[in-house]
Every structure is written in structure tokens, then in C-alpha cells.
Amino acid sequence: MKTILTNKHISIEMRKRALQCYIEPVLMYGCEAWTISKQIQNKLEATEMWFLRRMLQIPWTAKKTNERVLYEANKRKSLVRTIRKCQATFLGLVMRRGKLEHLATTGKFEGKRSRGRQREKIMDGLSTWLGPGKVSDILAAGKAEHIVISGHDGGTGASSWTGIKNAGLPWELGISETHQVLTLNNLRSRVVLQADGQIRTGRDVVIAALLGADEFGFSTAPLITLGCIMMRKCHLNTCPVGVATQDPVLRQKFAGKPEYVVNYLFLLAEEVRALMAEMGFRTVQEMIGRTDKLQFHPVAGNNKAELLDFSRITLNALEMRPNTNIKGGSVEQNFELEKRLDYKVMELAKDVLDGKSRNVKIELPICNVDRTFGATLSNLISKRTAEEGLPPKSIEISLKGSGGQSFCAFLAKGVSVRLEGDANDYVCKCLSGGEVVVTPPANMAPSFKSEDNIVVGNVCLYGATSGRAFFRGQAAERFCVRNSGATAVVEGCGDHGCEYMTGGRAVILGLTGRNFAAGMSGGIAYVYDKQKLFKPRVNKESVDLLSVETKEDLDFLHGLLSDFVAETGSTLAQFILSNWETEQKNFVKVFPTEYQRALAEAAAEHEALEKEQPQTEILVNGIANGDIYENGTDDLLEPPSEGLQRASSLSNVYGEDMINKLEDEDWYEGSAGKIVDNQKVNDKGIGDIEDAIRNTTQENKVLDAVLDKSRGFVNYKRATYQYRDGSVRQKDWKEIYNHKRVKEGLRVQAARCMDCGVPFCSSDHGCPLSNLIPKWNNLVFKNEWKLALDYLHQTNNFPEFTGRVCPAPCEGACVLGINTPAVTIKNIENAIIDHGFEHGWVRPLVPKVRSGKKVAVIGSGPAGLAAAAQLNKAGHLVTVYERNDEVGGLLRYGIPTMKLDKRVVARRVDILEREGISFKTNIEVGKDLAAKTIMDENDAVVCALGATWPRDLPIPGREFTGIHYAMNFLESWQKQQQGNSNPYISAKDKDVIVIGGGDTGCDCIATSLRHGAKSITTFEILPQPPATRADSNPWPTWPRIFRVDYGHEEVKLKWGRDPRVFNVKSLYFEGDANGNVTGVKTILVQWSKDDAGRWTMKDVEGSEKTYKCDLVLLAMGFLGPERSIVEELSVGLDPRGNLETPRSKYNTSIPNLYAAGDCRRGQSLVVWAIHEGRQCAKQVDKDLMGSTSLAGPGGIVTA
Asked: Could you tell me the superkingdom of the organism this chain comes from (predicted)?
């Protein structure tokens, strides 16, 4: 077996490095127990010897030199040189069987290698569908040498989602049927079979070989090892990890190494060898077709699976036709190339090809069985002259008849072909400098109009790079598709003309079909639209339609049409030329917008070089000064006067090193690298009140013209001004967020969203709600706020809560977060819902029909409110019980006011009440009201109790006064702020110690600071997290990194230090004679792993220290729900003490009793609680009604 690195995205240098350094260990397939002489051992490096010993399982001891050895140094070099010459044929890796023994022992390929190009095998690819065996039989009989069976699982996901999920069948079916049919017809030895389609493991390789595959295609798995994230945007040249892109900026983000692919192959090969040894096979060839080694093992307990019959799939093909040669490719196909028309042309043009003559004229008949005419001739020319070709009209060929498929494909420069007749599909495919003229027969009736008849078929000039093609008559569909440099004239075309065209010129002198210029990004098309029917048929997404007015365009058209008339005798073109002054006005110029931009940039660069005066362009929020300045001074995007100082707040998402880097940048930074000082932008004073009013309409127009959505993630920086200035906000109880400033720069931030084909921000590691983040990011960029709000509400009942208090796991899973700061998803979400409230778009939606079912929800936290909202939406009568005096649970009294304004909570509760939900406060179920009573009065009961049982710290001195649970501290103060007269726990003028971190600990820090604490210190028993992701914490998992949250920043601003102390353990509390806490005795700890890989904690001797304190807040998390309801109803609990439910279900051990939120899941995030409430409501509705219309994750409604 030989391995060829053919990933076209790997640089040549990296590929050479991989081949030079790691080719030896790949030569393990089919090897016997080779030994190595002492002489060779001395020449090998230690790492190479380790690989050989590990993979080939040979001893280190030296053997006699006359025994067989794996290779010698000179043969090794020959092998590397040979493989380095192999050219990439397609994306991925191809692993082939056979010829290994000769390769391993001699270091050379079998047979002699000619200096000229090797003849490529004829390869056909089939997607596994109905009857691939029969099709393969036809292909083999039609001289195919290599057949690829591609299963439904294959591909990197760039096709449509419905196609990925529903098209095709497993490659196992296709390989088995193809191998059997080819063997039955004695054609198996003529072709090599390759299996393809998410082959990732050695087991997959072995199964494919046992079913009949000779080769095994790998693409997805090697790409993933190199860093591909399956973003499904390969065609846009915006790959954020530098794999599928030619952009030099993005290429720098490529972090893949050839060693990664090699390591993957090592593991794959080791698994294959182990399975081969287990089955008793020495080589891969011995495995091919041995279906007797495959056994059917249905899933235990699945009655349907036991009914499946795999006997036809596992039928040994040699039983159908014994003694048949099944070694793929061992018998060469006879192509009878000498009978091709090209060979006759090559013989007649021999003197020109040999340089003995300058010109030859050839006249021949042609019929439609002469396919790919001109390709073989062009191949010979390219071998001798490479890209230069021959001088113009060196070989002039005149043909009469009907050209076959791919007529003049790849036609080289210097060859001129004139066909009198017609031609099939793919005329001038990949035209490479040749000239082609196709005209109707000269003996047609005078009434015959060429412009009304098709003269060439579909997909003409597909992928053409240079040359000219004149067609007197119409072309069928997809004319000039992917043309990148050729010039063509035709008298009309069908649908999808100039599709994906990237260069060249196309002139259409008549009607076109629909969807013209779809995806066209380069080149120019000129369409003669005398009947004024063209514009509605154009796909205008990427092109502009202009009139032909410039002298350059008119001269080009006139000259080209003159040549067209001279070559074809076109009466239509002659009419246009004869009436040029009037008919030129009927031409429409189809000009791609991207091409216009590229030309404008090139012209600007050229002009700048001519002036030879370096100019520094200042960009404000990504906008060039030339576009928005008047007289070079007025800034239309001038930031508001409030908060003009540099943003000093830190991001709560990224590591400190990334934060500091971003923090040093001012509000806006241009791509030219010059920072704009916000204080200096507006140097002249305000002379009139109108000067202080921002022209937002004009700003949006400028943004529309300048913002680049496709490359926003490269051009624009992540905003770091989501918080108000820390020195100001720590003095008040207002929300810490800078809502106004965030919203002003939101379109720029939305432009950074890449609209990933596979949005990891909505995946399991990202948003639990599966919010449609790319959708509403794009809508915000387009200023379509109402539609963005609709998409947001499709998955999230309370975005105003998550947009404020959620730690944004979606940003941790954002694709940009791999190597740059993520999109500000949380800010955008919050801005959408606030914008909706401002414009009155968020209104109560009362169900039109009621089901008559009564459902009680115990607990009004985020899970309870979400469940209630969804159940009410389904038409049920919902009653929510809350033990506190106000609705909201954690949202009302657990989260501080400066993080979540309680007016925001009250606003949402008011909407829920008006929608028909009944709230009952000051009722603690299990104490004030029996849980059994609620069960009897309702059709279903949802427990959304939360995890309110706090974790204690049972160390000596715990009984001292002044030691409180964090939630008691926060709740008492929130109630005080809401007007409750009950006493609260105050931190004023106290030395505060917070034991525990997380969001609750940070809220305690910020609240104590605003109370007026004397000092604040936080203990965390774990080590300080790293500034960036550790190797054990890969993307897209939640980044466990060092963060500076709002409370930490405020303390640092006030006292000049971070309040956190890491690796510290509390030994005991100290107190005074009155029983008040006065200090905490601590010791530092050191963390290490034991032999089993478990983390263990060890005290550091001599590190004891006493911290003075008057107030201790325990913020160490929660153990689970409180037990009153649990004990009354005898609800089953899981090992962690939470209400137990089946996996992915929400029903408890008690009929009609459901659980959602932290009481089921354990202590978690608000966004998880909302997700739990929504999905619990969906199950309740389905159980009550038999079906449900409530949405699941991602807003998807399933039965």
C-alpha cells in the first residue's frame, strides 16, 4: 500500500516535509516480520527506530546483514524522491493496496518510471444510489479503470442540508453490489474499486476491503486533523482556520501540521493491522472480497433489526463465478486510441508539432461519436510547449458534420478549429488558448435563421481560461459557466448563462434564459436586448446592469462583432454593425459588483503609486475618511459626548492576554493601523446645536456602502465597551451595561458574524437554546430589527434576561474564538430585545383557544417562567406558585440590580400576566400549601424549584456571627431595594471575605463594594486558570480561562489589586468573645495528579495565614433542591440529590409530576433553566394532548 498526501490545502513545503520525515512507518501494510541490520540501525534516528519497532514489532537486536532488511539508506532516498513527484489528484488521502512488498524491499515502484508524464487512469465516480453495480459494469465495459463508490455520508457538508441528510445510500451497499456484478461479468480485474464516504477508522477500512474495495478515500478525517471545523463555507474564501482559502491573511491562521495527519494514519494503520492479524490475513489483497469474515449482529432487543437480511450483501462474489481474477487493475484496458480522430490529426500535423513546418491546414469529416475532439492533440502540444502553445493558426482544422461531446475540450493555443454543422454538450470545455468557430451548414435553406436555432449544446466554455469561441446560432443552458478568461460570441443562450463566471468576455446577440449571471463574480457580459426582455431574467445578487456608453466598451464590441461577421457570416451581427449608431443602445453590460470593486481598488493603487506620496487613511469604525469627511474635519460617525474616554472595562469572555491586547485599542481602529483618538476627532467646537445632532440616516447609508459583511471578521475588531466605566458604575446601582454605545456600533459587530454553515454557537457546546444566532446577526446587520426579534423569540422566551446575565457559552463556541475574539453575540441579543420593547413590538399574545387542562408550576425562576409561558402558549390554564413576595425567583432576588434591573423582570411578568398566566406569591408549597393538594387540583405539575440548598463549610468556628450564605446576603439586599422593611446584611465599613468564585461570588464582591466595604477578598481553592485554553480544554468547549468580570475590575480600580486569592483552603474561623467572626485561618494548597490521573490536593507547609474579616460570605454553590416537596411526595432522587427523570425526559417517578431547571439538572445557568422549562413544557403538552406544536431546540417543531 502506498500513501499519497493529496490535500490541496497543504502547502508544498509541508507536504514535502511529511513525505521526507514520515514515509517509512506508513509502509506497514502487508509486511512480514522484517528485521533490520546493525548497519542500517546506525543510520536511522532514534525516533525512526522507535516507529519501526512500534509498528512492525521487531526486536532491537542486530541481525546478520545478509538477512532481509526493510530498506537501505539509498533506497529510502529513492523512495522519497519518487513519492515527492506524485501529483495531487483530488482532495484527501487515497490509500492503495498492492505492490508493497516490492516497494518496501527495493525502495522503488514496480517498473521503470519514464521522464515524461504518466498516463492518468480513467476515473468515474458514483454516488451510492439504486443500481450502482449495473452502472459500474457499463463503465468497466466502457474502458473505465478506476471507479469510486461514494456513500451518502461523504463530503464536508458544503451541499444543501436536505441533500446531506436524505440523499444517497451507504457505500457498503454500493461496494458490495459493484464488486459482485463486476466479478460476475469477469470485469473485476480491469478496474480498481475505491470506497469513499466518512471512512474514518481502521474498522471502516477493513469492512470496505472485505466487501470488495481496493482503495479507501479519506477526506473529512484528515481535514479535521489539520484543523478543519466543517464550517461549510469553503466556496466563499472565508475559512477562519486557513484551510479552504487563498487569502494570505486567513492562511496565517492555519495551524495544521503534517504530523497530525501522519499520527492519524499511524493509529488507523495500527487498527487495520490488528484486525488483519485477528482474521489471519497477511496482505490487504487477501482481504478483498472475503465477505465470509463479516457477520451480522443486530442490536440486542431490536426486533426490527433482527428481520433484516444481509445475505446478498455478504455473498462472496467468487461463489457466483469461481476462479475469476478479482485483483483490481491487474488487466489493462484496451482503449483502441489509434482509431480516434485526434490521432489522424496528429499524424497530419506531425511536421508542425516537430517544428519542421509553420502551418498546416486539415479538412476532415466528423460525427458525434468523435468525443473530446482536440483534447489529445492539445495534450501533446502542452507536453512539448507547456503553457506557451503554438504560434497563432499553426494548425487550422476545418470539419464538417456533428461534433461529439466535449468538442475542442482543452484546445491549446495555436490550434484553430472551424466546424460547419453543430456540436453536442461541453463545447470548448476548459478552452486553453485555441480558437473555435461553429456555424450551421452552408447548404441550409435561405429561410433558415441561425439566431433562432441551437448550434451548440449545454455547458459550453465550462472552465475556459483563454482563447476565442464564435458560435453562429444559439447555445443551450449554462453557457460560459465558470468561464475565467475566454472570449465568446453567441446569438442566444438558455438558462443560467454566465453562471459563476470569473473572467473573460461573453457577448450574447439575442435572448437569454432565466437566472442569467447567477454567482458571477468576474468578467463582463454584453447582451443585445432589442426586445427588452433581458433584465427580468437576470440574477442581480452579484451584478449590476449598465448601459454601454464608454468608448472602451463600444470599441471592443464593434471590433469583436466585426471579427464575428468575418468568421461566421452572421447576418444578425452584420445588421447590428450596419446600424451601429442606433443598435449599440440596445446592449446591456453585465458587470459584477465584486469585479468593479477590484478594478477600482487596482486603479486607486496605481494612481497612488504614480503620485508617489504615501497617504495614511484614517478609518473610523471601518469607514474611510474620504467617504465621510467634509473638508477633512467633520466626523459623521463622531461618538457621543458621553463616555469619550478610552474604554477601560474588560471582556468577561477571553483570557487576560487577549483582553489586555484589545483594551489598548481605542474605540475605533482602522485597517490602516492608525488609531483615532476620540478626544481629538472633533477639534473644532460646536457652534450650533445642530452640530451636536448626529445624522444617523446618513451614517447608515455610509455603513451600507462601506461595511464588508463577507470579511467583517477580518476587517473589524471586537468591541470592548459593553460595560460602563468602572470608576463611575461602582458608585451607583444602575445596570453596568453601556446599552447606548453598544447599540451604536452594533452593525459593525454583527458584520463580524461569519454566518457559519455549521453554527457551533448553537451547538451542544454553545447556546443550550440553539438560538438562531447567525440568522438574527445577519438581520441586525441589514437593519431588519423586527424580523431579527421574531427569530430570537422563536427559540428564547426571555432574551432580555439571557442578554444581561448569561456568561455566553455561545461566544465560547464561536468559530472566531479559535484564533481571534468571538462575535459579541450577547450584546446583539440584548440590543434586539431592548429595541423591540422600545418600538412596542413585544406585546402579550393571548391564546385564542384554551385546552381546558390545568397545569401548576412550582417556582417562578427562569425555568418556571419559561415552562409557564410555553404551556400558556399551548392553551393550557397555568398557575405559578412562588414562595417569595414577588415573582421572578433568582431573577428577582438572586441577581443584583446592577446586573439585572428589576424593572426588566417586572415588565416581562406583566406581559405574562396579561397573556393569562396566574401568579400566586407568598405560598411555599410543602409548608403553606400541601403538594398533594396541588397534584389533585391540576392535570400536571411542573417542579421548577431551583437548586436552593447551599453548600456549607463545616470547619471550626462556623457558628460565629457574621458568616452567611451568599444568597441570603444578596436576597436580603434586593428585598431592601424593592422597599421591603426587613433587615438586611450590610457590608458597610467591613472587611469582607467571599469564599468561592463563579457568578455568585462576583455578585457578592460588587454588592459589597457598593455597600461601602472596607476591603474585599475572595478565596478560591482551585489554581488560577490559564490565560488561554489548555490542551485539555479545546474549542468549542467552554473556555476555562482566567477572566476579569465586572466585580473584579471594580475592586481593582478602587484598591489596585485583584480581590482573588487562588490555591487557598480555609482551616477555621476566628472570633471574639461576643461570638463575632474576626478572621479566617488559611493555608495554601498544591494540586497534582496521582498515578490514576486523579487530581489530589496537598497542603503547603509554612503557608498558613490569617485574614482579618468582619463578614464572611459562602458562595460555594448548591447541593440541590430543598426537601419539603420531595419528602412529602416521595419523589425519586438521583445520586446527586436532584429530582430523577429518564434521560432527555422530564417526568419524575410520580405520575403527572415533572421537573425542570436546576432541581433536575443541578446548579447551572439561566439559559439552561430556560431551555429546561421550554422542553419540559413540550413534554407536558404532548402527554396531555397526545401531540404538541411547541418548538424544540432551535425553534423546530416536531410531532
From this structure: Eukaryota
Helix/strand/coil for 1067: strand
Strand 466-471 to 432-439 pairing: parallel
Residues in the chain with pLDDT < 50?
1-93, 95, 97-118, 614-694
End-to-end, the C-alpha distance of the chain in Å comes to 50
Distance of CA 30 to the CA centre of its chain: 38
Cis upstream peptide for 1036 (omega within 30°): yes
8-41 b/e (C-beta count within 10 Å ≥ 16 → b): ebbeeebbbebbeebbbbbbbbbbeebbbbeebb
**Which SS3 state, helix, strand or coil, does residue 1070 take?**
strand
- Closest of 1117, 1030, 1089, 1103 to residue 1061, by C-alpha: 1103
Cα–Cα nearest to 770, from 795, 753, 788, 794: 795
Q: Tell how far CA 310 is from the center of its chain.
A: 37
**Rg of the chain (C-alpha set):** 37
CB-based burial, 853-881: b 16+ in 10 Å, e otherwise: bebbbbbbbbbbbbbbbbbbbbbbbbbbb
pLDDT at 702: 58
What cell was used for 344? Answer: 489522424
Q: Give the tens place of pLDDT for each residue, 947-987.
A: 999 999 999 999 999 999 999 999 999 999 988 888 999 99
What is residue 697's predicted lDDT score, i.e. its pLDDT?
A: 55
Q: What is the spatial distance between Cα 1030 and Cα 179, in angstroms, rounded to a whole number?
A: 48
Q: Which residue, chain included where needed, has cell 469619550? A: 644
Q: Are 187 and 137 in contact (CB under 8 A)?
A: yes
For residue 22, what are the contacts with CB-CB under 8 A and spacing of at least 6?
A: 258, 259, 262
Distances (CA, A) of 920 to 852, 857, 878, 879, 886: 20, 10, 11, 7, 9
pLDDT of residue 75: 37
Element (H, E) at 125: strand 123-127
Range 622-625 contact pairs with CB under 8 angstroms and sequence separation of 24 or more: 622/668, 622/670, 622/671, 622/706, 622/707, 622/708, 622/715, 622/716, 622/748, 622/751, 623/702, 623/703, 623/706, 624/706
Helix boundaries (H) for 92-247 = 100-106, 132-141, 161-166, 171-184, 202-211, 220-225
Instruction: Compute the distance between CA of residue 504 and CA of residue 468 in angstroms, rounded to an integer.
Output: 10
Cβ atoms of residues 134 and 140 within 8 Å: no
d(CA 18, CA 873): 60
Query: What is the rounded distance in angstroms from the CA atom of residue 569 to the CA atom of residue 395?
Result: 22
CB 973 within 8 A of CB 985: yes
What is the C-alpha separation between 1086 and 1096, in angstroms, rounded? 8
- Integer Cα distance of 810 and 19 in angstroms: 40
For residues 269 and 55, give the distance between their C-alpha atoms in angstroms, rounded to a whole number: 9
